[in-house]
Design brief:
Antithrombin, Chain I, domain 2; elongated
Length: 421
C-alpha cells in the first residue's frame, strides 16, 4: 500500500505559457490550466537546478485567482496573464467550480475509504482594514474562501504566536492522514508571512492522500542502486510489484525518447505519472526544457495497458520556496511594488501590496503511507520476462485528476536520499 500525504502552502504564484485556441470552452480552460502548471514548475525548477523539487500548481492557481478578484488596472492584467484565464469571467468561474466539485467527489469516502483531497484558501485580514463592499461575499462564493480577521492583535502592535492559526475552510473529503501536517504548515507559513506593518496574508493549501489501486508490499522492497547526476550511485529502498499498468513511449521534436508510467490510486480518479528519459545518459534537465502541456495531454491517448515489473523508489520531499524575487521577472511585478500595486478591489482605503510569496510543499511516497519506514529486505527477485520500468535515475512525477486533467502536484526526484529544503 502506498499513500501520498501532501501539504502545500502558497501565498502567491507564477507565470503561465501562451494560450492556444482549442475546440471547446472546457478544452480551452483545461489547456490553459495545464500550461500554467507546467510553466510554474519550469520557472521554479530553473532557479533550483539539479535539486529535488515538488510544487502544487492547483494550490497556487487558487491563490492567484483570489488575488485577481481584488486587483485592478495593470496589477489585475498581469495576474490574469500569469494564470492564463480570468476568474471574473462567469463561464470560467462556473467550470472551475464544477471541476473542483468533481475532484472533491472523486476522493470522497464513498469513492475510496482511504483516499482524500482537500483544498483550502484562507485570507487573513488585520482588524483595522476596511474591505471593499462585496469583496468578502465575492471570494467566498467562488472559491469557498474563508476570510478571517485578526481580532487578537495586541495594542502595542505586537503579535502573540497563536494569533494566526487558520481554520480549515472549503471542501474536505474523508479523514486525511496528512491533516496534521497541513495545519502545522499553515501555522508555520502564517507566522512567516506576517510581520509588523503587514495588513493582509493569503494562504492556499492542498492536502491529498492516495492509496494505490494495486498495492506495493514491503516484503518486495529492496535496497537497490539509484544513479545520480554526477554518475555515482546511492542505495535506496526500491519498491517493486508486477502489475498491469498504463505505459507509453513518446518522443520530443528533438527525437529525444522518454517513457511514461501511470499508476492509479484507489477509485482510479487520481493517478501518479512517472516520466523517465529513455536513454540513461540523457539528463532530466534536457527533457524538462522541452516539456509542454501539449506533451502531457498526449499521454492520455498514448498510454496502453501493459504488464510490467515496476520499480519505484520510496521517497519524501520537502521544499520551502520564496518566489518574491522570481515572479517580477516573469511579468508579475506590480503586485510586489508598494507604488504600483492596485488592490483597490479588496480595500479602497488602504494601499495594499504583496511583500512576500511563499510556497511550502511536502510529499511522501511509501508502501504503507506512514512516516515509519517499512522493513527493507534483501530477498532476491525472481527473473521475469515482462517489460521493466525501473525508476533508478532522476525522473519527473505528476499527480493528476483523470477526468479534468488537473495537475495537483508536479516535481522531480534527483536524489531519494536528499530531504533537504
Amino acid at each position: 500500500m502506498c499513500c501520498l500525504p501532501v501539504a502545500a502552502i502558497v501565498a502567491l504564484l507564477c507565470l503561465a505559457s501562451p494560450i492556444h485556441s482549442t475546440s471547446s470552452p472546457q478544452a480551452g480552460l483545461r489547456h490553459r490550466q495545464g500550461s500554467f502548471a507546467v510553466a510554474l514548475y519550469r520557472a521554479i525548477a530553473a532557479s533550483r537546478a539539479n535539486a529535488n523539487l515538488v510544487v502544487s500548481p492547483s494550490g497556487t492557481a487558487t491563490a492567484l485567482g483570489l488575488l485577481q478578484l481584488g486587483a485592478r488596472g495593470d496589477t489585475r492584467a498581469q495576474l490574469v496573464a500569469g494564470l492564463g484565464y480570468d476568474v471574473n469571467d462567469v463561464q470560467v468561474r462556473e467550470l472551475l467550480l464544477q471541476w473542483q466539485a468533481e475532484m472533491n467527489n472523486s476522493s470522497s469516502p464513498k469513492a475510496s475509504k482511504e483516499a482524500g483531497l482537500q483544498h483550502t484558501c484562507v485570507l487573513l485580514v488585520q482588524s483595522g482594514i476596511k474591505l471593499a463592499a462585496g469583496f468578502r461575499q465575492n471570494v467566498e462564493a467562488w472559491a469557498d474562501v474563508s476570510v478571517m480577521r485578526d481580532n487578537q492583535q495586541q495594542s502595542n502592535n505586537t503579535r502573540r504566536d497563536e494569533v494566526w492559526l487558520p481554520i480549515q475552510a472549503g471542501s474536505s473529503s474523508g479523514d486525511l492522514s496528512g491533516s496534521g501536517e497541513v495545519q502545522q504548515a499553515e501555522a508555520s507559513a502564517s507566522l512567516a508571512l506576517w510581520s509588523p506593518g503587514q495588513q493582509m496574508a493569503l494562504l492556499s493549501t492542498v492536502a491529498f492522500r492516495g492509496v494505490w489501486q494495486k498495492q506495493f508490499h514491503a516484503i518486495n522492497t529492496h535496497n537497490l542502486h539509484f544513479l545520480l547526476l554526477d554518475g555515482t550511485t546511492v542505495k535506496v529502498p526500491m519498491m517493486h510489484q508486477a502489475a498491469e499498468v498504463r505505459f507509453g513511449q513518446f518522443q520530443m521534436p528533438s527525437s529525444q525518447r522518454y517513457s511514461v508510467l501511470d499508476l492509479p490510486y484507489s477509485g482510479q480518479s487520481l493517478s501518479l505519472q512517472v516520466v523517465l528519459p529513455w536513454d540513461r545518459k540523457t539528463p532530466l534537465s534536457s527533457l524538462e526544457a522541452q516539456l509542454s502541456y501539449r506533451h502531457v495531454a498526449s499521454w492520455d491517448v498514448g498510454l496502453r495497458r501493459t504488464k510490467m515489473d515496476v520499480f519505484l523508489p520510496r521517497f519524501k520531499l520537502h521544499n520551502k520556496l520564496n518566489l518574491r524575487s522570481t515572479l517580477p521577472t516573469m511579468g508579475i511585478g506590480d503586485a510586489f511594488n508598494p507604488t504600483d500595486a492596485d488592490f483597490s478591489g479588496m480595500s479602497a482605503e488602504d494601499s495594499l501590496y504583496v511583500s512576500d510569496a511563499f510556497h511550502d510543499v511536502t510529499i511522501e511516497v511509501t508502501e504503507e503511507g506512514t512516516k515509519a519506514a517499512a522493513a527493507t529486505t534483501m530477498m532476491l527477485l525472481k527473473r521475469s520476462r515482462s517489460p521493466v520500468f525501473k525508476a533508478d535515475r532522476p525522473f519527473l512525477f505528476l499527480v493528476r485528476h483523470v477526468k479534468t486533467g488537473s495537475i495537483l502536484f508536479m516535481g522531480r526526484l534527483m536524489n531519494p536520499t536528499d530531504q533537504s529544503l
